[in-house]
Amino acid sequence: MVTREDVENIALLSKLFVPEDELDGLTKSMQEIIDFADAINNAPSSDVGFDNINNLSNVFREDEVVPSYPVAEILKNAPEQAEDHFLVRNRE
Amino acid sequence: MGSIAKIHEMLVKKEISCTELTKSYLDEIEKSNGTLNAYVCVTGDEALKTAAAVDKKIAAGEEIGLLEGVPMTLKDNMSTKGIDTTCCSKILTGYKPIYDATVWEVLKAQNAVMLGKTNMDEFAMGSSCENSCFGGAMNPFNENHVAGGSSGGVASAVGGNIAAYGLGSDTGGSIRQPASFCGVVGLKPTYGAVSRYGLIAYASSLDQIGPITKSVEDASIVFDAIAKQDKRDSTSLGAVGGETYSKLNNDIKGMKIGIAREYLDGVRDDVKEAVLAAAKVYESLGAEIVYFDLPVLKFALPVYYIIACAEASSNLGRYDGIRYGYKTAHYTGTHDMICRTRSEGFGEEVKRRILLGTYVLSAGYYDAYYKKATDLRGTIIKAFNDAFEHCDVILAPTVPMTAFEKGHATSDPVETYLTDICTVPVNIAGLPGVSIPCGFNANGMPIGMQLIGKSFGEAQILNAAYRYQQAAPEQFKDTKWGVKL
User: Fold this and answer.
1) Cα–Cα dist B413/B407, whole Å
2) Handedness of CA B266, B267, B268, B273 (dihedral sign)
3) Which of the four pLDDT bands, split at 50, 70 and 90, describes residue B264?
């Protein structure tokens, strides 16, 4: 059972605001999707397990220093920047 | 002859210059994009610059490659250096990557002429393309119908002849479903065949890039070009099954084509009839049709949505208004800024999937949903492996219906998710699947079928698809739009 409180809690974890007037509608649609997902609990249990698709093992390589992207280029996409850093203000 | 080979021949024989050809595509985009809404960004200047370079090579008598000078497009979730890459989301407004996705790096090095970036459901989440912040792409067979999703823009552009081919991405059917709706060919390669470096992530264990084309030959040519191992994507292995183009038109006498009965459950009658008629064509070509059961398929859709949303909730954590894209205008603190940015920047379906993913990963629900879904993924993979003991390829509908009218898909999320029922199993199991046209409904809308292969069995499914295309060319119809070669 998905409650309003559940939705408020996962919204907080997801760093999303849900407006008060959308909370009931969202709780209902989450409940419908979870009811649909609950079908998997009728599946027979199995011990096949899953790790990754192509049974890959870890890829190791030498730790070589290679050129990185220029800081100025990276910062061009930042909404705000200062002194070669991303700028995060605590107040607008 | 496919569009790529045809264009190559026209360029080599100097029947048309690459600049003239590119201009004609750009003119047609200008004429039809107002209706089809396939492109969200047109890069005419860059396209003409590449075209001029190709013309120079031809004039100098140099040999050109098959993909050289061929006008194409990329879905807007593939990074293109200096060119807007938005995933059709407000949250990536104005984002210009500083590097190219590997697939684009590879094609650019072969002088592919990119006409622009194409429309998609926001962050590839959707089955109609209508979750795009630019509005949905329309179907070239009937512009009151959707192109499908999420790679709707590529399928619309290719079906509408305003790109010779395009690259889409497929997480739960996002290449095959719009290809089926728009009457074109869409190949979802084996997980790991194509590098995902520079593909903006939705669900990393399911995402795979592949071609959307007018013909099977074209899909084969493009797949061979992009299936490369890439050290920047540690899950990439390249074309383990070898190249595919030279293996088209191999005899399929004795090939065992499996039909899982569950794939036909709940499928609309006209779609079922078209797929079964295609099975008859295969029999006439000497293949043997084998029916079997795959009962675990009924869990594929919830397994898919749990895994995809869980991975999305993590992947989309990076959008915080600090490093790139949209940032809210007014806020009272850092937490408030991040929450407002995300709430204003993401669309409704993306937020729903982030919330669902967070829910299934949170304490108390992890075992019941995420862990259970992951265990079932192993069971589904084993079921496919067992099925391939009895058949060489699997034939199934691509979508249980044909393209719906615009506005139809958005009302009920669960009902919309059901349209993915035939496509998601392939992503869960990491297998290759190709969708090709196999008929039309009473209203003239295309029906698609998919051929599913063993891991890295692209050559085999493309060959089987090609044999069908040769035997039933009437199913590969052109539309009224765009450039006529």
Assistant:
1) 13
2) negative
3) very high
Instruction: Report which of residues B228 and B410 the model is more confident about.
Output: B228
Of B207 and B266, the one with more pLDDT? B207
Mean pLDDT of B178-190: 98
Distance CA A43, CA B374 (A): 12
Known catalytic residue at B174: yes
- Residue A65 in any domain: the answer is no
The CATH fold assigned to B3-295+380-475 is Amidase signature (AS) enzymes (3.90.1300)
Predicted TM-score of the model (pTM): 0.97
Q: CB–CB of A40 and B335 under 8 A?
A: no
Does the structure show a pLDDT above 70 at B411? no
| Contact indicator for B69, B18 with CB cutoff of 8 Å | yes
Domain ranges for chain B, please list them.
3-295+380-475
Query: For residue A58, is it within any domain?
Result: no
Mean pLDDT of B262-268: 93
**Shortest CA distance to B98 belongs to which of A13, A70, A91?**
A70
Q: Which domain holds residue A35?
A: 4-42
- State whether A92 and B329 contact (CB < 8 Å): yes
Render pLDDT for B41-95 as a digit per residue (tens, 0 to 9).
Answer: 999 999 999 999 999 999 999 999 999 999 999 999 999 999 999 999 999 999 9
Q: What is the ipTM of this complex?
A: 0.95
Q: Which of B17, B89, B127, B174 is catalytic?
A: B174
Residue B484 annotated to the active site: no
Question: Number of structural domains, chain A?
Answer: 1
Q: Which residues of B touch A77 (CB under 8 A)?
A: 94-96, 98, 323-325
Integer Cα distance of B319 and A57 in angstroms: 30
* Catalytic hit among B17, B127, B150, B313: B150
Is A59 within the bounds of a domain? Answer: no
Collapse the DSSP code of A53 into the 3-class scheme (helix H, G, I; strand E, B; otherwise coil) and give the result. coil
- Considering the domain boundaries, does residue A31 fall inside one? yes
